[in-house]
Amino acid sequence: MKDKWIGYYCKQWERTRKRTIQLIEQSSDEVFGHSPKKQYSFIKQVLHIMEWEIEMFQRAGFNIEHQLNEAEVKSKRQLLDYTLNVTKTTKGYIDDLGDDILNIMIPINTIETPFYEVLLDLIDHEAHHRGQIVSYYRNFDMSPPNYEI
Predict the structure, then answer these.
(1) d(CA 134, CA 102)
(2) Which terminus of the chain faces fewer neighbouring Cβ atoms within 10 Å, N or C?
(3) What are the CA-CA distances from residue 66 to residues 21, 49, 81 (Å)?
(4) Is residue 146 part of a domain?
(5) Each residue of 114-145: pLDDT tens digit?
(6) 3-class SS at 135?
(7) Number of domains in the chain
(8) What is the pLDDT of residues 43-78, one digit of tens each?
(9) 127 domain-assigned
(10) Structural contact between residues 120 and 12, judged by C-beta atoms closer than 8 angstroms
(11) Range of the domain at 29
């Protein structure tokens, strides 16, 4: 049953990530460069998704050195490559953990939390920030990508 759960999780996580990747790929220059006053910029929204994922795996004991500063992002291709690299690394760690993924506990606000709960939260977190990005598309009268993946 554990293997099935992990398989189901990975399938949904990969679909979630593909949706984020579509938003990067299909963004116009205006959307990509959008930086509202009281929200993260387009670039920072994507980086924040990746940073939170990296941090959660670091708390689980993985040594992930991927970090990209918003000021360092000079192109859509660079942001996309970074996202794909973090995705590949994360997928590898999930595969390496196998069934152990259900036994790991990590600290969240000083409370030991099952890592599988954190994994579920990562999908919600990504969807939330992807929703912010969709609003940027709409600010420029653009339709966001179709999510039927």
Answers:
(1) 33
(2) N
(3) 17, 13, 12
(4) no
(5) 998 999 999 999 999 999 999 999 999 999 98
(6) helix
(7) 1
(8) 999 999 999 999 999 998 888 777 888 999 999 999
(9) yes
(10) no
(11) 2-139
